Structures are given as structure tokens and as C-alpha cells.
Amino acid sequence: MFKKLFLGDTKIDFYKIGNIFYKIFIVEIILFSTVLVLTFTNILEMNLSVDFTGGTTYQLETEYSTDDINDVMNSKILEVSRYQTFDNSSSIIFRATESTSDKEAEFLTYLSTKFNISDSKIEFQRVGPTFGDEITEKGLRALIIFLSFIVILITYRYEFKFSIIALIALIHDLLLCLSVYLLLNLEITPSTVIALLTILGYSLYDTVILFDKLNDSKKINKQNNINVETLNNTFNAVLMRSINTSITSVIPIASILFIGNYLGLSGALTDFALPLFIGILSGTYSSIFVTIPFLSKIIKR
Amino acid sequence: MKNIIKIFLLPLIAFGLFYYTVALDIKPKLGLDLQGGISVILTAPEDTEEELLIKAVEIMRTRIEAFGDVQEPEISISGDRSVLVQLPGVTDQNKAIEALGTTGLLTFRPVLDSSLNTGYSPAFEYSPNPDDPDNPIKTVPAGVDDLVGISLDDNPSTISYLLGVNSGFPVIYELGPAALTGNDISDAIAVYPDNEWIVSLELNSESESKFTNLTKELASKSGDQRKIAIVLDGEVVSAPGIAFDVDPNVGITGGTAAISMGNADAGESANNLAVILRYGALPVAFERSSIQKVSATLGENTLNLGLQAGVFGLIIVSTLLLLYYRLLGLIAIFGLSSFGFLFYSVISLLGKFQGYTLTLAGIAGAIVSIGLAADSYIVTFEKFKDELKIGRSFEFAANKAVQDAWKTILIADFVSVSAAFLLYILAIGPIRGFALALGLATTFDLLFTRIYTRNSVPLISNFSKNPRMCFPITNKDLQDV
Questions:
Q1: Of B122, B128, B230, B111, which is closest to residue B175 (Cα–Cα)?
Q2: Would you call B99 an interface residue with chain A, using a CB distance cutoff of 8 Å?
Q3: Domains and their CATH numbers in chain B
Q4: Which of A32, A198, A177, A279 is nearest to B427 (CA)?
Q5: Dmax over Cα atoms in chain B, in whole Å?
């Protein structure tokens, strides 16, 4: 069995299973849309970091009890909207909505007396709401230009239909990642946005390599259009590369997650690693199993 | 022989550069998030002219330098109207933010005396020394540096001794308490009406009388004492004298004044003075959009995490490559480690010579690129296997594989490089660091694929023609297909 996989000689009928994965794809899209609708109707909360909402965060490392946290949450100095604690470290993060700098300084002093630590030991961050907007705006602009560029590139190199399939796979990966974030109520930071942009690149890279292989097979068999046999052979042959590549890409990222978790560190680097981890797995899946049903539809029997 | 040179070209460059950076002790310039410090993003109002932003950045830079214990402050314009200030190693955030955010203290103070008159700082007072007539006794008022004779702190409410520049020469002024501040000015503009640059000054209506009283008093005096010093953040930026036609009984009235700046060459200094008078220190009223403080320990932890994760990931990836691709795995591992050394050296050199700072986002980009680089080897090796499968000879299959793989990797990497390029051009702040790291790594990957992999993989047939040495499959498996 492994030998067949190693040889790329598995005899999976991708054309046939295209239908099954088409159904899975539809189910996924329904799930993603449900999550999005729930978010827009405010049933699910979108956990945006202070960079997007504006406000202040205070991170400190101290011994604390539930009462302490309640005290802080009910303190009248600032409107503390949220707090975050960690299982394997003694850090707490408090998040407050925007206020005057006097109030913010007062709150800092309050925390330092409350938990009896020097105020220079408290990580303090203040962000105006414009900053997050700017990142999002520029990110979206980059995204749209990039996607149009990709459509042109794939159309030029392969076929227009291919570029649409690549986009579908891409959107699938982004939606999957976003849904995981929304469902688990994970914090969305600028790092997350960067990671999502990377996933874009990765997902496309994977899909392009597959298309290239498909194109090669077509040329070798001197066909004008891809037929079922070519499709099946190509996907069987390319399976091992996909598995090996995703393993080698995921391992460095997984090691950030696991070492970070082991050391009790949570921060910007793990903010990157999580969406990348989800995205690379999803990218590998989508490059084969999301493209297959659509490729099956466009080829001639 | 030619092939051997090509194979070792990139590894040699990589190890050479690495040796060079280590020998000269050049290390990557760490971003704030990796070494701790304060990062502030200031945003100017919409449609602020770029020229004003540049001016504000210059002013902030001098202020931060005056501030002392900052290692390498980095102040740069980012985007259309944001200024990114990074103060690595600074822990006193209140002081730092004060130095940046406030519009600065602008005061108008009567000149009492100056070193133009005395020849030395007017703070010094010399009295004859009865024991040694050649060395008179020097007395220095409290709060004044006893070597240069300049006040240590600019206190506008008492007499101070401050430095200024007059026609290119440093002058120390003795100044009385401040009579007016920057808040009393409503507008200032540089004009060139009649072969002479003039800064025209307009006062708030409630400050008119203060200014009239000051000028009345000064007009009755002579020499240095007719001058008004315009002081910004403890430095005399200009000390115009009251014109001789001002009546000491009337002073300057009407709430306006004109400062003559000299002939046609004085345009720049007139403009600068007008800007200072108009805006105080910073020509732009900034909004503090973001203040971020990272403690040194947090930064260090993150850096260590990144490094550990990177090394750990590389070890596992190498082990897998070796187990699966065997001899070919060795080629990949040697290539990947050269790639790693090259990347580290170039990042260090870019930090040293181009001021590129390695941030967390950059490290993430680098870690992602390990996956991309490893993939290029996998693509090549798998093509090799495919060629063997259809019955090609070892030599032919290896040569065909590296050529075909190059085409695939070229287009796939091209997608990555263009993604990185677009991100770099369009995005701001941390995203750019990420894009640069990714773009750089992908470019290196292309170079390695084209020069290193392409020439080393075909050499495999010199060592062994048994597929077992390259894949977990045997000759028999290949024949069975």
C-alpha cells in the first residue's frame, strides 16, 4: 500500500470521487456561510484585537484569583471589555475601550498597586482605531490586485477555467481559516491578517504545481484536452509530492506552536503559526480535493 | 569540473558570507518586538503635505537624540501620513512619549546679555584673584554647566543661559523669564515683499498687550538687550532685535510684527522660523494611533522561540528527507543548510548596511520559506522518480527531472515572489518585513534550484544506479509498474 503511494502508483479514481468531494465542498461552504451569517447577526462574536477596535491592552504576569479579575473588570476607571488568561503561564491580559490618556495612566497605576508589581513590568499598548483600518484597507487592496494578477498569469500559462478553480480553492482555504477563528473565538490580530496573506500564496503555489503537472501530462500524451485517464494518473502521481511537501512545510510551523505552548508563550509568533498551520493543511487538501470536482466537470469524458 | 564549480558556487558564497558576518560580528538588526522597547505610530491629519512630515521627523529625531539613553532610534514615514517611531531599549515610556507627542515648548524671552558681548558665556562671572592675577576666580550660577556655561534645564520662569546660532556661530544668550509662549501666536508666514525675507507674525487678540508691553520695554534699551529670543525646546532658534524706529513709549501694537530675515538667500531659514512659530516644535498635530511597549524579556523569549522552532523544524525536516530520499536527501540537506546560512548572512548584512530590521513577521516569513525551499527539492526528486518509472535510464531521468522541475518551480516561485513584491509595495509596517523575508528566501530558492540542484542531482548516477539509494522503492518495484 505504501509502496504504491511511494511509486505514485495508487489507483484512486479521482474522477469518480470528484462527486463525493463536490458534496463535501458544498457542505463546507454551507458551514462557512452559516458561521459568517451567525457572525454578522452577532450571535457569534468576532474577537478583533485592539489594533482593529482601538483601545488599550495591559499584559502582566502575576499571581491572581478570580476575585482579583472581577475587581478589575468592575473597576470604574476604564471600561474593561475583556480579559484573557493562560493555562500554563501566569499572564493576564486586560483589554479596555478607548479613553483619555489620563484615565489610561490611572488604570495602569491601579493595576500596579492591585497586583503589587512595578508599572514598568506591565506591557502597555494603545492603539487608535485608524491603525487597524489602515492595515485592513491596504491588505484588501493588495489582495485584490494580487488576485487579478494571478488570474491573468494562470490564464496566460494554462487556461482561464483553471484560474477560476485556483480561486475557488483559495477562497475555500481563507473561509476555512476564518471559520475556525470565528468558531473558536480566537483573537484576530494584524499577524493573523499577514498569515492569511501567506496562506493565499501557499495555496496558489500548491495549486499551480498541480496544474503544471496536469499540463505536462497533457503535452506528453499529445492531447488537446485533458481526459479522465490523464487526470487520474496525474493526481495519483502527484499525491506523494503533496504529502511530502505539506509535511515539510507544516513541521517548522507546528514546532512553533508546540514549543511555544510548551514554554507557555503566547504572542505574536504563535498568532502567526496557528493560521499558517490550519492554512497549509487546508491548502494541501484544497489543491487536490477541491480542484478535483471542478476539474472533473470541465474535462471531456 | 565545470559542474563541480557550479554545485559548490552557492554553498561557498553562503559559507563565505556567513564566515564574514561572524568574523566581523555582524548580527541581524533586531526589531523592537524581538529586543524590547517602545514603538509609537503617529498619524498626521489627512492631506498633510509630505514636506511637513519630513520636517516633523527631523525635529523628532533631534529631540530623541537629546533624550539620551536610546540605542538606535528609528523614525520613519510609513504610508501617506503615518510616522513610525521605534525606540529600542527604552523603558521609560512616559518620557519617550512626551518627547514625541507634545508640540514642544516655544517661548519668547528678553535677551539680557550674550557671549557676543562678553566673549564667553554670560553665566560666568570673573572676579580678580588676589593670589594669582593671571587666573581670575570664576563663579557659575546654580543649575549651569560650569564648563560651557549653558543651563542644564530650560526653565522659562527664571533666568537661563541657552545656546543659539548667529550667522553660523554659536552664541550663548542670557535670557530673562519668558514673556510669551507659542500659544500667544495665532499665525506666522514667511514673505518676500521687497528684496528681503520677512517672517510676518500675528498674535492672538488677548496676547496683543503682552507683546506691546514687552516691545515697549525692550525699545528703550540698546545692544543685545533690544533682542527677543525665540526659544524652542531649550534652544534659541532666532533672536531678532527691536527695530530702532519703535517708539519706547508705544511699543509694537496692532497684534502683528515682522521679523527681518535678510536677503534672497534667507528663504529657507525664514520658512523654517515661520513653521516653528506657527506649530511650535512639530509642524503637524499628530494623533498617537498606536503605542506599544515590549519588555526585553518578552522580546528575547520570542526570539528564542523562533530560533528553537526553526532549528527543531529543520532537524525533523532533514531527518524525513534523509529517510525518504536517502542520497538525494543528503543533497537536499546540504542545499538547505547553505540556504539557511545565506539567508542569515544576507539578513545580517541588510541590517548593517540598509537598516533592515528583522522582526517577528520576518522570522515567520523565514520559517515559511524553509517549507518552500524543501518543496523545490521534493518536486525535483519526484520528477526523477516519475522518469525512472516510465523506464528511463538513471542518467537520463536525472537530467530530465532537473530541467522539468526548474520550469515548475519557476512558475510556482514566481507566484510567491510576486505575492511578496505586491505585499511589500502595498502594505505597511510589519507586513513589509514579512514580505521582504519571503521574497528574499524565494529568490534564493530559485538560485539554488537553477544552479545547485540542477547540477548536483545528475551526479547521483556516478555513485549508484540503484533506486533504493534514492527512494524507498527497488528496481523490481519500478519494473512492476
A1: B111
A2: no
A3: 2-24+295-480 (1.20.1640.10), 37-101 (3.30.70.3400), 106-279 (3.30.1360)
A4: A198
A5: 115
Please name the amino acid found at residue B210.
K
Tell me B64's DSSP state.
H
Q: Which residue carries 498597586 as its cell? A: A113
Q: Residue B430 pLDDT more than 70?
A: no
Q: Give buried/exposed letters for B48-79 (b at 16+ CB in 10 A, else e).
A: beeebbebbbebbeebbeebeebeebbbeeee
| Chain B residue with minimum CA distance to A134 | B428
Min Cα distance B290 → chain A (Å) is 4
| B235-267: pLDDT as tens digits | 787 888 888 888 888 888 888 888 887 777 777
Q: Are strands B29-30 and B357-358 parallel, antiparallel or unpaired?
A: parallel
C-alpha cell at B272: 523654517
Q: What stretches of A101-211 adopt beta strand conformation (E)?
A: 123-127
The three-state DSSP-derived secondary structure of B41-56 is: EEECCCCCCHHHHHHH
Say whether B368 and A268 touch across the interface (CB within 8 A): no
Grid cell 482605531 is found at A129
ipTM above 0.85, yes or no: no
Answer whether A252's CB lies under 8 Å from B370's CB.
yes
The answer to whether the Cβ–Cβ distance between A259 and B289 falls below 8 Å is no
d(CA B392, CA B220): 105
B91–A249 C-beta distance less than 8 A: no
Three-state DSSP at B102 gives coil
Domains, chain A: 2-47+130-298 (1.20.1640.10), 55-127 (3.30.70.240)
